[in-house]
């Protein structure tokens, strides 16, 4: 397994993408207030997607749990050199990119919904159902968190990550790859 560091993004969270049945009104995975079912996420624990470990926030559907990209600047001054980056993310309106500027790469998040019987493997984690904020159930579509990874030939000393402005692009977790 590749040595990695799972970043703590809590101070940057500005949106709520996962909810329980009693907190659906807090959902903001998209403009219509839909959300991922929090009961299917291991809150405060590590979840592997495409073989990459990601640390999920402990909020468990009751507080902010992801980053909606509005040009945030995130500093990580004490990271060892990286050989890659893995991002657990989704795009609200289909495939979306995030230009992380200059030396870094472009992240691509596939659309966050797939058909009921479609597979999200190997790069995604599909949920059993989609939460609607008014309690309505629609089982024809399922939400997905996608793992996007990039690798560099030479180690890179990431100290700052600057997100572009793209509020349709959401980041749930980031893992730095060291080997």
Straight-line distance between termini? 9 Å
Q: What percent of residues adopt helix (DSSP H or I)?
A: under 10%
| Strands, count | 15
Mean pLDDT: 84
Oligomer: single chain
Instruction: Report the C-alpha radius of gyration, rounded.
Output: 16 Å
Largest sheet: 7 strands, antiparallel
Any overview of this molecule?
- It is a single chain.
- Mean pLDDT is 84; it is low at 98-105.
- The chain is built from no helices and 15 strands.
- The chain has one domain (4-177).
- It has strands at residues 4-6, 18-19, 36-37, 46-49, 52-55, 67-70, 73-75, 82-91, 96-99, 106-109, 113-115, 124-126, 141-156, 160-162, 165-177.
- With 179 residues, the chain is mostly beta strands.
- 0% of the residues lie in helices and 44% in strands.
- The relative contact order is 0.29.
- β4 and β5 (52-55) form a beta hairpin.
- Strands 1, 6, 8, 11, 12, 13 and 15 form a 7-stranded antiparallel beta sheet that branches. Strands 2-3 form a two-stranded parallel ribbon. The protein has a two-stranded antiparallel sheet with strand order 4-5.
